[in-house]
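Input for the complex:
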Amino acid sequence: MKNDGEPMSVALEKLTEIAETIYGQLDSGDIPKMSLPLRTKGNIRFDNKTNVWKYGKATGVRSAKKAVGAYMLLRTMHMLEFIGDMISDSKSSTLREMYYISEGWGKAKFNSQDESDKLAEDLEIITKCLREDFKLRPEEDGARVIGNLTLEETDRKGKKKRMNCRDDVGDSGYSVPYNVESDKIKLISHDADFIIAIETGGMFDRLVENGFDEDFRSVLVHLKGQPARSTRRFIKRLNEELKLPVVTFTDGDPWSFRIHASVAYGAIKTAHISEYLATPTAEFIGITASDILNYDLPTDKLSDVDIKALEAELTDPRFRDPFWKTEIETMLENKKKAEQQALAKYGLDYVTDTYLPEKLTQAGII
Amino acid sequence: MATIAEELARKQKEISVSEFFERNRQILGFDSTVKALIVAIKEAVDNSLDACEEASILPDVSVTISKLDQTEFRVSVRDNGPGIVRAQMPNVFGRLLYGSRFHAIRQSRGQQGIGISAVVMYSQITTGKATHIRSKIAESDVSNDIDLTIDTKKNRPVVVREDHLIWEEGGTRVDHGTLIEFNLGARYVTGKQSVMEYLRSTAVVNPHATIRYTDPEGKVYNFDRATQTMPPKAVEVKPHPYGLEIGTLINMLAYTQEKRLSLFLRNEFSRISDRVAREICEKAMVSPDRRPKDISLEQAKAILAAIAQTKIMAPQTDCLSPIGEALIKRGLKNVLGTLRPEFYAQPVTRPPAVNGGNPYQVEAGIVYGGELPPDQPVTIMRYANRVPLLYQQGACATTQVVGAIDWRRYGLEQRGGTGIPYGPAVILVHVLSTKLPFTSESKEAIAPIPNIMEEIDLALRTCARNLKSHLNKKETKSRAAVKFDIVTEIIPKIAEKTSKILERPVPDISRTITKIMNVVFIEDSVEYDQKKKLTKATIRVRNYTARKQELKVHALVPREYIDSGSIYPEPAEIADDGKIMWDIKKMQSLQTVECTFAMKGLERDDYTENEVYVSDINPATVIGAETLPGDWGIKTFEFEETEEEEADYDEEEGELSEE
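Predicted:
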């Protein structure tokens, strides 16, 4: 990746400040500690300006008084050093590589990649930079897009490639890179009325085969379960820059509700950059608890984990509206969940001929 | 209630005692073929141990079981006891109610002289075969060998074969000892209630005995003695009038040599003076000069009632012979073998107490953790006069007390706080008395008498508190270990990294360290020097606070073993009960003081953990030792205000499952 100077040196400066703070605490005989906003559902607030959920004012302390805190602080120092080295060597690494780098840190090595990913996010929050500024990037995620959308991507050799996401791609569609900012992708033109973000690959392929993108003038985006940052950012850019409305089409289970929440409201884990990732106007047209009843869909029994997840959602401020409250409670009551592909009960075309037109009409999209 | 044996003795005119037992064998514990084998061995081993102890011989007992067919086994039990003279042999083994112990009031294993002859009879009933006995006394050159049966109608032994021979075992002449061999209808099992368990349990409470066991498959197990010291001999005492039963009184009146009631009372009982004897006679309205043989049943009852109304000194208690705290530990250790537990609670021997007219005493021990199985009910080892109790666990006073204690307070698991606790532990309870109250004549469970249960409870709780204090110590130590890791590993590394990133000198972290630890840390260790037979103890005190500290450190040490020249630094005091006290003054921040001492005359593992206490310091600032119990010069301390805790970022319940 090219080093364009400006954001990198800011990141380096901010990271050095963290080291300064810790050094200062040790030098004056105090117990080293760091303050961070609590990344819990209890500490996210709706931001009226941006219409997304962001971290509130509650903070927690990571202190060397306790073992966990002490280890995390030591890891932070190692990570600072590593990022500093990458910046001066013009290198970058994936988050997974970052995790493996810690193998050489002795006692400070991470126990799991989750831990190192989370620490990278902590640093984003403290410095108000993005992990890309730290030369850390996720693995290519390859969320797919099909629809009449033309964009221009700057490839790894610096060559600009213009392509139409319907005509210039194969059946698996355009693969979304991890960097979707305007320096990498320019949105050129489109001929579509809305974006439909789909949870599962099976359903994405069904819509492609049935020609849903052409028949309904839509751009299909495959979320691949919980969508990566780049996928959410990409959807947000289409929504903001091309003024295309967004709908999410998911399974009918507690985890799918959360997928919609992270697309539309902002994920708890990345609430520090919600305004950059979330699309507040996105509408949910996935399988609801009511759909399970109304469409008489084949179901599975809720597992104990599912029930816990639903109960947690009842106290999640993002779901605190009448629609979600009713749907969550209905699902808890019926103890049933259904996959979006359960619609095949009525034939392969049912989803594109009946279900989606009905749901899109209800949502006021068509 | 008179013992069944005594009642039966009176019935002797109607039917023979032997005949009665032949029909009611369950009374003696021969109620199943599995049990019969264990009970038969137990009776023989009890006899062997009792005989050795009477003669002050360290017992060597060998038990061998051979399988003859599915239902018949041959048992042989051999000891190195004093032997039995020829004239007594038939009576000892072939006549119920015969024995030196029947009329003696003394703590012993067997009590009524029923046991071994019942075994001879059981053998005879189930196999039709005679019992072989060989015995040799030191004065004789040859042993006496007899084959014996019992004439059950007449309760008389019948010698069916007799021989004399030179007794050799493994090529060596036997100097003295007794061997009994018999066949019996039985079933052999392994497991919790088995011959093996019985012998293992026996070895625990008889650390002076070597027991060798050859099982039916020919496998040999050795339980070697853990001490060369004989237990003190149990003293024979006269019965105390309290707790006397009518049957016993009538028997005694019938057999006494005394000619007058007052003399009978004074000389046949303990704690009765002339004055007390006169008082009893007066209250019973029986002439003190009346011949004991002429006392009627009505008069005997009146005497008993008078005794109850008369104040008589409590019975003497020095006639009991407990195993003792050190030997309980050694016995347990010896028998656990390769299983290494984590902790032996200091065994407890309670002072003797009195129930009715009989002195009794309770001992207890707890072994915990290590390689003991963790998720099973604890093993309860019950003993009565050094005899393990294997059956009727639920009916026993010991089990009932164990089940009534809330063991959760002492670090064991227990559903609802009652019942047998779960966990890696062995609980040992030994009750000893000149006359133990059993629930039945088969002597399988101690009767739940309130007095005795209370003593068991006190003994167990003392052990349990010791266990809990060990567990607390372990927990605070593991917490301290975490902090040590922070201050010795992590903080120095953080300092090093930050200074490297910032290209500045490494900051001094000592103040940070004292802020994180903020304790006076006490560690104790014990080493054993095999060559010099020295037990060396070290108590290490480190001041991990930011301030100077002063404190007193106390170690409770067995007084008789302390090598007083070895105590360093100079102690401020050595108390008579073995408490060593050091007065540590002006300990600088991050300073370490080591207190050491040595003990002589202890075996390895006798002393493995120091009992350390502190005083004259805020207990909240000390880790690794508890505050000296009692109001032993302890000032009260204001607890320091701890700063208000901020939410811990890494421990806050998060919901980061998204993305």
